[in-house]
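Thread: Newbie trying to understand structure tokens

Hi all, I'm a second-year student working on a class project, and my supervisor (Dr. K.) asked me to get a predicted structure for one chain before our next meeting. I've only ever worked with sequences, so writing a 3D structure as a token string is new to me. If someone could post the tokens and maybe explain what I'm looking at, I'd be very grateful. Here's the chain:
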Amino acid sequence: MLCATCISMFQIEAKNGDHHKTLDDLIKAAESGCRICIYQMRHRDEPQINTNTDEPYWRVCFDSEVLWVGSGGIFVHVSHAVPPPPKYLRFLELATDDLEAEPWRVRQEHLSLRDIPQNTGHETVAEIAKTWLKRCRETHSSSCEEIYAKRDRSWYPKRLIEVGDGHRQPRIIQCDLHKSIGGYATLSHCWGSEPSFTTLTSENIKAFSMRLPLDNLPQSFRDAVIICRRLGIRHLWIDSLCILQSGEGSGEDWLSQASEMHAVYLNCELNLSINHAQNPAAGAFVQRNPSFLHNCYVWTALSMEELDTKSCRDDFSGLRRHQPLFKRGWVFQERLLSRRTLHFDKGRIAWDCQESRGLSEYLFEGLPCGCHFNVFEQFGLDPYAEVYRSFNSVEAQLTITEYWWALIE
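---
Reply by user tm_fold:
Sure, no problem. This is what the structure looks like when written as tokens:
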């Protein structure tokens, strides 16, 4: 859905021009559901500007490669030429009439759009993740499998959570006492400033090995169990439930398992990353506005044969650096070592593996332009910094090591 002003940008021959004339119009358009105006509101500069001024707040321009809006970019994918639906010409006439009195108005296009659930915990959302996982397992042998060929497939963490199936309750298992465990998932999450949730202790480990009561766990952990069940992954590793947190032997247990933390993520089948939650009580699943995940269609009579497809990095994985999870030092290691990551962001799920990065509910196949955002950029680090380029030098290795320990301690 687009407002009358944004639709008009695709109908005029001019290569540049003013967008909404007042910030008040921009706000109204965003609140009405205009996709481009919502993006602008997300990225507008501070401080606040008088909303009623006639001075153009943003300059919008076309060039031969990309539609730029302010300092950010709007992703434009140009498909082959097709005639508009019969009712679209009338819709376009009404939108043109709106330009004078209500340039912020958003009209319904009445197009047939896919059904998108209002919550990321819906089973159809899990089916999307299941498709990504299946395709990675079956077709990414040259990248996601071979690059990890040297990992020890027989290695497992000391403990895992057996997630059960709805009829059988989850429980903690000691891996060296079990055979045919199969692949396991890991969970990346924020503990929060004052963690008070259920953890593994020397007092409850015996009871939890028989039954891990889901009702006593924080929402993020319960959601992680649900995700694993839906994806067909039988085991899950959560730090606070697989490493003793208090009681007799907890200090030795933590030191022993912390030294193998790299192996936990290197050998996992999938990493579940709850990016948006500040603590486990928030959960992985969120309510969202489904309309913002629909493809946005607009027909134009203008020639766009030379229009290329570009993207604004800040509107994809670059935004993750501002989410709570990516402020944790440990997560850098978790993301770097995991071959596959299923992200739970604000309003959508997303996927990263060695071959496919930036997949989401909005872009099932990733960016058509082939852009990729690596783990360094997601943490706000420069992937081309001198310290990374000269990693083979002893001095550089010491610098990174010192920085890493300062980050996680």
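A couple of things are worth pointing out once you decode it. The chain is about 30% helix and 10% strand. Residues 4-101 form one domain. Feel free to ask follow-ups in this thread.
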